[in-house]
Write a structure and sequence with these properties.
Blueprint (H helix, E strand, L loop, with lengths): L7 H10 L12 E2 L2 H10 L6 E6 L5 H7 L4 E6 L5 H7 L6 E5 L7 H8 L5 E7 L5 H10 L4 E9 H7 L10 H7 L2 E9 L4 E2 L6 E8 L10 H11 L7 H9 L3 H14 L12 H11 L1
Parallel strand pairs: 2-3, 2-5, 3-4, 5-6
Antiparallel strand pairs: 1-8, 6-9, 7-9
Helix pairs in contact: 2-3, 9-12, 11-12
This protein binds S-adenosylmethionine.
Length: 288
């Protein structure tokens, strides 16, 4: 068997042969540590039972490791210059489909229905393009697809935000939005030296799995995101001032907000980062 695509010597040879310069604008940082890729596949517990959606296969380093374990891999790559490369590097793997598309624009359920049999567990595994980590995550979390779990690499700093608890600096709207439905586990850190070219910051592998349903659910996800976003609009301001920002300062609005906060036993003078996910759910439902 040939050496792994992720092997640093092979990666460099592939990039040279195709005259490729990694595109910074597309977040192209290729992993060149086969062991880290194997650890990602292990963290996602990929087996023959699984179909995997990958975002940004690049030159195929992670795709290859996934293909060795999964039933099928469906990978979305925006850069058409990589298609010939992927054709060659992934030629030994017959269980891979590459789609040349922007993951933020593609109709994911449609492409999945066209390319996967619907009989396998669906997982997402990816080394994400960092400039669009948040929109990709939001898109996946709001997707109607039955995603069993999401195992993705992102900047360490963003991973810490996903995983943050109330009252800490990284805790914010992203933490709350993700933790509404998901358990967040940071599996391991990945140093910047593991990439070619090297990014400026270290990374981490994050695993998102579905948590048990909360006792109280928001009456609408959109309303929930709106409340959370609005409450964190100015982190240094009080919850009250942020609510004024969302709802205005009319006297009857103030009276209504005061009543809601009293009912929920939330002090108007707290900073938004003190509120738990459940607080935001209850706040959303009462504010309707
Ligand atoms: N999977 C490879 C690896 O681990 O070495 C490459 C990962 S690299 C961090 C991110 C990849 O995402 C690049 O190949 C880039 O071209 C691709 N990409 C960037 N924006 C994208 C988008 N909107 N849709 C799909 N792929 C995208």
């Amino acid at each position: 068997q040939e050496i792994d695509i992720a092997d640093p010597v092979r990666t460099r040879a592939i990039l040279e042969r195709y005259g490729l310069n990694a595109k910074k604008s597309l977040g192209q940082n290729f992993l060149t540590r086969p062991q880290i890729l194997k650890d990602i596949v292990a963290a996602a517990d990929i087996s023959e039972e699984d179909d995997v959606i990958e975002v940004g296969p690049g030159i195929g380093a992670l795709t290859e490791q996934l293909a060795r374990h999964a039933h099928h891999v469906l990978a979305f790559e925006i850069d058409e210059n990589l298609l010939d490369v992927l054709d060659e590097t992934l030629d030994p793997y017959k269980n891979v489909t590459i789609i040349n598309a922007d993951i933020l624009k593609v109709n994911l359920p449609k492409v999945v229905a066209e390319n996967l049999d619907g009989k396998h567990t669906l997982k997402v595994v990816a080394n994400l393009p960092y400039y669009i980590t948040t929109p990709i995550l939001k898109g996946l979390l709001q997707s109607p697809l039955p995603l069993d779990q999401i195992v993705v690499m992102m900047q360490k700093e963003v991973a810490d935000r996903l995983n943050a608890v109330p009252g800490t600096k990284p805790y914010g709207s992203l933490s709350v939005a993700v933790q509404l439905d998901m358990n967040v586990d940071i599996e391991f850190d990945v140093p910047k030296e593991a990439f070619m070219p090297r990014p400026k910051v270290d990374s981490a592998i994050v695993k998102l799995t579905h948590r048990e349903p909360r006792e109280v659910q928001p009456y609408s996800k959109d309303a929930f995101y709106k409340t959370v976003h609005g409450c964190f609009a100015h982190r240094r301001k009080t919850l009250w001032n942020n609510l004024m920002g969302i709802y205005g300062k009319e006297e009857d609005t103030k009276a209504r907000l005061t009543a809601v906060l009293e009912k929920l036993d939330i002090k108007p003078g707290v900073r938004p980062e003190r509120l738990t996910v459940d607080d935001f759910v209850r706040l959303t439902n009462e504010l309707d």
